[in-house]
Amino acid sequence: MANQDTLDPVAHGTGMPQIAPLPVGGEQFQNLPDRLRAAATECAHKPALIDGEETLSCADICNLMDRTATYLRDKGLQPGDRVASLAGNSADHVVLYLGVLAAGACMVPLPVTAHPTALAEMIRNCSPKFLFADDANLDIAEKLGAPQTLRLASVRPKAQQLPPIEPLGTAPTELFDINYSSGTTGTPKGIQHDCRFRDRQMTRMQKMGFGSGAVSVVSTPLYSNTTLAGLLPVLAYGGTVILMRKFSEQTFLELAERHRVSHILLVPVQYQRLLADPEFDCFDLSAFQVKLSTSAPLPEPLVRDLLKRWPGRLINLYGMTEGGLATILDCGAHPGKLHTVGKASEGTDLRIIGEDGREITDGRVGEIVGRSNTIMTGYRDAPEKTREALWQSPDGGYFMRTGDLGRLDDDGFLVLLDRRKDMIISGGFNIYAADLEQVLLTHPDVAEAAVIAIPSARWGETPLGLVVLKKGATVSTDALLAHANAQLGKTQRLSAIEARDQLPRNAIGKILKRELREAYQNAARAAGS
Q: 66: Cβ–Cβ under 8 A, 6 or more apart, which residues?
């Protein structure tokens, strides 16, 4: 019998390795549009989506989804095609997303914070049939080279004049969406999820309460896997989603109190900013049942403050947009394990490997790898990058490599340590230091550059540039900062630049970033003590 994790090097005729997820016994797959139709039958008039002054019921959402699918098909969209979007959070954006899926196509929400150069590469990589943009991003979208660029606000008025599409049968292995890792250099990686990935993810989230009884605020952008993990199951099972177009502490707290919000998924810096709001304790948050945190480390002092001041369970999740690995920590149930990210979730096989690629089983530190019942199909049109992201176990199974260092304690809880990759997580968004360093090095006066994460009260972490100038150079750090940030996306921008006489290196010439970071981390700890 063939191994469940066999790589097919010619799957779909693209040469892309296809990674098989672990099987789930007794599974009954149902695509998202069909789940929404079932919810509309059971609770037609229940509020499903609230965007400012507009409220759409379950029946409204289903009706708009199916009419949008007809609109897209009439314009020539075929099953398997890709549709890209460059837009912020809005009801129009959600309706487009659902309509694309109902038409049997794949949705590609692009990061609005990425630099136009990176966005153009994403368009080239995914080859969308259409690119839809909201008014704030239309000028940028029209310059990205998509075959057809259309105004997002025009979709609903046209779709409402058309009949609903006849429901399509969708195979579990058909592509659902592509999420991009944003960057300014090299090729941004398109992380492909199939319909089975999303269906299983929704099932897992429903078990944590993100379903028919949930009222949830969505405050992170639609191009984020974190957002989709919280948004889609609430809609699919008949719950209520309140959209925030831009996160602010006061607005979030007001919405949470007014709508009796029960379930949320936020990134740690949002929790940090909310608790720091001087009026936080004045709001009635008693309806909360579950709070999820993901996308960045959740500091233990913040966990204890959340448990003390905010009602409901607090669950810390660790994983990747690529899938393959998921751990879960119910913080209130395990007060002695708050320094960990919990245990492997149901359907996850988690292991630690050493530099030699062999599994570590004695509690030592190594790279975290995992496979699960939710895993990407591969990076789009990047078979070598896909293979580099995999580790093969002695029994032939393929695991996703996280690039993170950690160890398993005696109880099987994962202790997450340093990151092997020079990744900075600012406001829940991943920033790759190598991208920023290459931008700094484009300036003619810069001889050496290193970018590190330093603590930030507002963003959790923020990137700091450290440069060694060429002999005789007189450029100011302010001018360098302006030069670099003009080439970077909004969430990538450097907070500051400092000039150094030299950068510390080891015997083989590698810059010692840990040493660079320590001074800032020690200063932050001293300031907080």
A: 33, 99, 102, 164, 165, 167
